[in-house]
Give the backbone structure.
Amino acid sequence: MPFLVGCLALGTPRVAIVLVILFSNYIGRAYDTTLWPLLGFFFMPLTTLSYAFAINSNGSVDGMHLVLVVVTALLDLGLVGAGSKTRWRD
């Protein structure tokens, strides 16, 4: 089941966040408040999920988990920027 949610997160990360919040306490264990997951849901969903994975599996964000969080942050920022670039081509 976690593999299925991980694959779903790459395609539709917001749906994956909703499923993880509804069926587990995975996001709640990673974040102290509800503000950061809420902001992450709207602005950087892949980074929100990867940070929750890093905290739940390692306890901190260091080493390869830090690389994962940085790569997903770059992906989130790239996805946002690519949408505005393609709009101006028309």
Notes: The chain has a mean pLDDT of 84.
